[in-house]
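Researcher: Hi, I'm a grad student and pretty new to this. My advisor asked me to get structures for two proteins we've been looking at. I'm not sure of the right format, so I'll just paste the first sequence and hope you can take it from there.
Model: That works fine. Here's the first sequence with its structure tokens right after it:
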Amino acid sequence: MGETFGLKNAYSKAIKALKNALQIDPYYDEAYIVFSNIYTQREAYEKALQTLEGAVVLIPESSLLYIQLGDCYRLSGNYGKARENIEKAKKLSPKDAYAYGVLASIQFAQEEYTNAIESAKKAIEYNPDHEYAYSLLREVYCELKKVDAAEELLKAYLKKYPENLYVHANLGMLYQEYFHNYQQAYEMYKKVYDLDSNNVAFKENFIEANLTTGRFEQAYNLAREMLKNQNLTKEERLSMMLIAISALLCQEKRTNAFDEIKDFVTYYKSLQKDYERSWSYNGVKNFVNKNEGIGNYEKNIILTLIDILESSDLKTANKKVEELKSSYPEIFVRT
């Protein structure tokens, strides 16, 4: 409840500050973009769309607004309107990497995989630091079951842009989730973490890599430190809880692990609204299943927690939480 109140309070303050900024300069296009981001983060797509539709009437020469409007329509599932606005952005700014990035996302969502690959490559051509374009290329190739091709392409980008953190991060993702080459994943993730430890996604990946390379104490300490961040999404918070619990169980620290499992269940049961379920835990599952140093009891608990997080919806997940409680009553005994 405290976390929810804090976020609502932060949103209210941000909205008030943006309104003040727009009173001073109503043609400040980036303010409308931040406004819409606040709404989309709360899944208030209609409000975001209303804000942006009004803004493009006021500032029709802003390609940024049309890109944002296109992306907002994409998020709301209206791909036709999304494409329409991205085309307007491209006419205003033909080499805008972000326009091509959003277009690639639309094409990927509509299973136009070849077009999505070309659009993502265009985005990288116009801006080699386009974070999402590399991720999308990896996702498309993996969707097509062409993991080797994804690695080959990302290695080519790494040769061209040897210091690009997003290339390293996406290669790390391939090694972690698909090739299960945990040491190589760790090395990729460590590089990006060392260079940008404030990036939440980089830090989360590095923490998981610590777990899957047997650095259990480090994984636990980093996960607990991450959980102090009040701005984590629900998915991020649950993921870090999973890593912390797994690190304890891998060290056979059952008493401490049980306490954290109870916290996990309490937090999960407090969720009144579902969250975006975009993560899978293939790397962790493979590590747990194939690691002979982890006892079967501990393995089963970790895999049960992963099964909860990979459930299709909150209702299904809550049923699995109840199954966890009935299967392992010793965890929930009051002390």
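Researcher: Oh nice, that was easy. Here's the second one.
Model: And its structure:
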Amino acid sequence: MSVNVFDRFTSRIEEVTAYLTAHQLPLSLPAGPPAPDDPWSVPRPAAVDRTTLAWSTAVLMLASHHHTAIDRQAPAADALLRELGVCGLAQLHCDLNAGAPIDYRFTRCPYCDGIGEDPTLPTCQELGCALWHEYDGHGHMCPVCRDDDYQPQWFAEEHMAELEELLAASIEDKTPARSWFGAWLRRRGPARDRPRR
């Protein structure tokens, strides 16, 4: 039985909501008190809805990374979404990866699970968007991975082919006496064209 990717979003929200309800934690936080008339004061904190996909994803990422319960990471998820919104999930993912940038072509997006579209918005198919919009940066893209296409096998083969071409060119340019090696690499062809062993 195959599981629809959109069912995973629903189950993620249900899991977190059930946990919060079982531990008698609020499902939403009201906005903070209004800021005083002082121009140097901190702006009023926004309300946080803990039943959204973004909040559920943030708290599960934090709890999984720190090996703690969801209730211990709830304030951090609240702060993240208050400060940065859904786009803060990309920064969180980067921070949990020791600050290294995340290439979403090789790493599944934690928010959209690699589909490249914002799962909380209606799809192009549901809205009846023209097919050519798929290629012009249409507005349904995921705010975390920015519509990067998660296809690690295809991109790995493309990278290997590019690296072999660069290696062959650099060997030929640097060492004329060893140009046979560069010619041999070019004759082999790109990695994607060779039969697998």
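Researcher: Is there anything I should tell my advisor about the second?
Model: You could mention this: The two ends are 32 Å apart (CA to CA).
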